[in-house]
Specification:
With 324 residues, the chain is α/β, with parallel strands linked by helices. The protein has a domain at 164-324. The protein has helices at residues 2-13, 27-34, 39-44, 79-95, 114-126, 189-197, 289-301, 313-323; strands at 61-65, 103-108, 131-136, 156-161, 178-182, 204-208, 217-221, 227-231, 246-250, 256-260, 266-270, 277-281, 308-311. The strands form two sheets. The protein has a ten-stranded parallel sheet with strand order 1-2-3-4-5-6-8-10-12-13. Helix 4 (79-95) runs parallel beside helix 5 and helix 7 crosses helix 8 (313-323). The longest helix has 17 residues, at 79-95. Mean pLDDT is 86; it is low at 8-17. This is F-box domain-containing protein.
Amino acid sequence: MGSFKHQKFYELQNVGDSEDKISNLPDCILHHILSFLSTKDAVATCILSTRWKYLWTSVPNIDFDDSLLYLSKVNAWYPLEVTCFMNFVERVLLLRDASIMKRFRLSCRVCFSSSRVHAWVSAAIKHNVEELDLCLFVEKCFMLPHCVFDCESLTVVKIEMNCVLELPTCISFPCLRTLHLSLVTFPGDKSTQKLFSGCPVLQELAILDCDWMNLNSISISLPTLKSFIIDDLPSFDSNDDLHGCEIKVEAANLVSLKYIGYLSNEISLYNLSSLVDASVHIPVTRERQRVVAFRTLKLLRGLHNACSVRISNGAIEVFGSCIK
């Protein structure tokens, strides 16, 4: 018995002297581990040991979300916390090393400062960020840095912003494969056309709850496009007529198309020869049914190559009411 106790004591004595196997892993694996943590927690690992002190400065994924400030306070927030959040973002970006940034996500619903957000996004671009995900709630117009729109490293761009998407004269996304736009108001035919024309290798496009009021006609001609989603449901009740914008889509390699909305904008489809799956969801409406029915029929005709087409009850009811 005495020998057994002595052995256990010896084992416990050597626990503190055992090799730190995690810290001895390569940086790439440790970065992968840190990617599962929030940026705040990743930075906090600097106190673990000398090995971890600067590891966070080269973590490939950066995620700043100010909603964490008030989720636990029933949507309450305080100026001091806002200041601390902004200072934290700036400190992380300032101390970051020169390594490439894979993903930069910034959500500012409360902590919005035009000059600071402009600087933060510019810093991400300087680090050759590959994926840019922005959720910005602004009180007035805000223009993203021009360097965003000619960034050669970007492969994914997601922008949710409740204002006009101000665009520079020159737009070039040579490597962009995924583009998601939410809540933005398109500025005008010419600028918006440059945006879509500046994405020569785009494969996935999602336009969600955006405002087309400044547009008359736009052409989305993308031979590389494979997935296209338009969620055109208004975020508020509108009694405007259905003049809208004509959205022309030509995509020979498009595989999947999903439309949700009242067809307040007219959709014209051309050369969808590779289409496999399509979905058309039109909510039940009693307003302007003949116009909606005509546009629905035009939309469906453009889907004739699809292997599978799903149609909502609302679209069927619109047809039925017009027959009567």
